[in-house]
Amino acid sequence: MKKIKYIALALGSAMLLPACQDQLDLQPVSQTVVGESGSGTAGSSIKDAASAEAALAGAYAIFKNGSAEYYVMDYFILGDGQSDNSYAGADNAAWFEVDEFRVLSTNAVAARDWRYLYNHVASANSIIANVPKVTDASLSATRKAQIVGEAKFIRARAYFDLVRIYGDVPLVVDELPTITSSNVEEIYGQLYPARSAAEEVYAQIVKDLDEAAPAVPKTGPNKMTVTPGAVHTLLAKVYATRKDWAKVKENADKVIALGYTLMPNFEDLWDGKHENSAEAIFELNFEEWATGGNWGSSMFYGTDWKKFNTPSNDLVKAYDDEKDVVRKASTIYTANVTGKWSDRYWPLNNFPFAYKMRNTDASQNIIMYRLADVLLLKAEALNETGDLAGARTLVNQVRTRAKLPATPAADQAAMRLAIEKERRLEFAFEGQRWHDLVRTGRVVPVMEAVKDGAGNSLNYKLSDTKLLWPVPQGEIDKNANLNQNNGY
C-alpha cells in the first residue's frame, strides 16, 4: 500500500508540472541531493574537465561543509563517547541515549548521520557515473581514472561507517536516472531501496578500494588527497573488521613501504605546528571559517560551556596505571570550572576535556589515518597468525615514542590485550575505540566492567542487539522497503 501511495503521489505531482516539463523533483530516501541545483543526482552537470574537477572538489568539501556535523563532531562522540573512553558530556538528550545504550529509532543523531553519510555516497556516485563520459580533451584518461578512484575511496569510506553503525544498509552505487511520470514505478526500487546484507556492502567496499588503489594520485598538495596510502590503510581497517589477517598484513605492508614515519614526539601530532606530517596518511585540512572551518574543536574543548566527550574516569585511570604521561598530556586537559556547571562524574576544580582538537580558531586539522594505526593493525595481524615476536616489535615501536618500556606480553592472549590497550591509549579521541571493541568482540565485557571514579560500576547493560544503531524511523516511514534492526 505504501508503494502505491508513493507512486500515486509522484504521478499526482507530475500532473501539476507545466505541460513542457515531465521531470519529477523527487528526492530518494537513501541518496541526498548534493548542491542546491541537485547536481549530485540525475541530470548531473559534469560535462567537461572543469566541472569534473569541481565535482571532486565538492566531494572533498563535504568532509568540511555538507556533512561536517558528522566528520568534525559525531564521528568522535560515536567512537569515544559510546565507549569507555568518555561520557557524552554537554546537555544533549540524543547523545545521552547513545552514551547509556538507550538509543531509540527516533534518535536525532542516528537520523542525521544516516543522511550525512548517504550525502557523501551520492556525491561520489555522481562522479563515478559521469566523469568517464566526459569527452573534453583537456581531461586526460589518467586524470579521469584518478578522479573516479578518489570518489570510490570516498564512497567506500562512507559505506564502511554506515555498515559498522547500522549493519545492513541500502547499497546505492548507481546514480538515479531522470525520474519522470512514465518511469517512476519502474525505478521505485532504486528510489526506495531495501537494505543489502552487510557482507554485500563489505564486498562493494573492497571492490571500490581495489579499483581505487592503482588509480589514485601518488601525492597531492596536502594530506587531504586520497593516495594509495589512504586506500591501503582503509583496506587494512576493513580486513581487520572482517578478521582476514593475511589481507591486513598485505595492505599494512603496502602502506609502510610508502615511507611514512612516526613523528618523534607524540605532541607534534596535535600542537598545530606540524600539520600534514610524515605520519599523517589522510588528513582533513581546515584553514578559516570561509572555506569550512573546523568548529568541532569548540565542541570538545573550552570552558565557556560544558563540552562533549568528557574523558572518563576509566580512561584517566588507564593512562595512570600505564604511567603513560606523554600521551595523557596530549589527550586530556584539565581546568577549574567551579561555578560553571555541575557534573556527576568529576570534581569541578579538576575537570577534564578531550584535548587532541584544541585550536578553536577554525584551523584545527583532523588526522583521519596515520601510521601508528597501521603499525598496530599489522601487529594485531601478526599476533593472530602466530608471529608474537613480530607483533611485539611493532607494539614496542609505538610505545617507545610514548617513552614507555617494552610490553611485557608473553603469549598470544596477553599480546591481544596489550594491543587493545595500546590502541586505546594511542587513539583516544580519534573516534576508534568503539569500533575496535566491537570488531574484536570485546565490547560487552569491557563496557560492563566500567567503573566511576569511586570504583562503583556504571551498570551499563549492553547486549548484542545494541551494538548497532537503529535504522532511523523517519527513513522507514518514507520507505516501505526498509526494515528495522533487532531490538528496536
TrEMBL record:
The lineage of its organism: Bacteria, Pseudomonadati, Bacteroidota, Cytophagia, Cytophagales. This is RagB/SusD domain protein. GO terms for cellular component: cell outer membrane. Its main location: membrane. It comes from Dyadobacter fermentans (strain ATCC 700827 / DSM 18053 / CIP 107007 / KCTC 52180 / NS114). Residues 1-21 form the signal peptide. Keywords: Cell outer membrane, Membrane, Signal. Gene3D superfamilies: 1.25.40.390. Residues 53-239 form the SusD-like N-terminal domain.
